[in-house]
Specification:
The chain contains three helices and ten strands. By secondary structure, it is of the alpha+beta class. It folds into two domains: 36 residues, no CATH class; 134 residues, Nucleoside Triphosphate Pyrophosphohydrolase, CATH 3.90.79. The protein has a four-stranded mixed sheet, sandwiched between helices. A three-stranded antiparallel sheet has the order 1-2-3, with no helix packed on it. A hairpin with a 5-residue loop joins strand 2 and strand 3. Helix 2 packs across helix 3.
Length: 179
């Protein structure tokens, strides 16, 4: 079959709290075999909270693999079997203190399709409530900032926002809102 690989065998080489990794042997369309290392992840959700004035809320947090503070939309990982809309609403509340009257699914993305099974579900949150207190995980530390969506688009274009899910959802929201 064209553009298809058949898994012949595999073994779990790492089992972790957030993801597992398998080493698989696959048969290619020409009959030869190849190794594939696959990171298995339950997926995640990201949410762009947008005010009536087209301002958005971002979170700033330290990202250990890069040794720097990033600007990102609120996001989190799905628990196995968890509904992605419920996860998105939970993450919005935990990270920003907001609930919303309008929660629109904006599609999905594959952050690293070459070796990762993660799927991120994107949501736009509108009609935001007055913020309550954040309820962060005990190992989570972040600051919330509000900026105009148009400024966020420029930060993406200038390379100041490096997180892929944040770049995509900002540009999609701006396009949908005509900004």
């Amino acid at each position: 079959m064209h553009l298809y690989e058949k898994r012949l065998s595999g073994e779990t080489v790492y089992k972790g709290r957030i993801f597992d990794i398998t080493h698989d042997i696959v048969e290619l369309e020409n009959g030869s075999t190849a190794d594939r290392d696959v990171l298995h992840h339950h997926g995640g959700v990201c949410v762009i909270p947008i005010t009536e004035d087209n301002e958005i809320y971002l979170v700033r947090q330290f990202r250990y693999p890069f040794g720097e503070v990033t600007r990102e939309v609120p996001a989190g990982k799905l628990e196995k079997g968890e509904d992605h809309e419920e996860c998105g609403r939970r993450e919005l509340l935990e990270e920003t203190g907001f609930t919303c009257g309008e929660f629109t699914h904006m599609g999905t993305l594959y952050p690293v399709p070459a070796y990762d099974t993660e799927i991120i579900h994107m949501y736009m949150a509108r009609k935001l409530s007055a913020p309550a207190e954040q309820s962060l995980d005990e190992d989570e530390f972040l600051d919330v900032e509000k900026i105009p969506l148009s400024e966020a688009v420029q930060l993406v274009m200038d390379g100041e926002i490096k997180d892929s899910k944040t770049q995509i959802i900002i540009l999609k929201a701006a396009r949908l809102l005509g900004i």
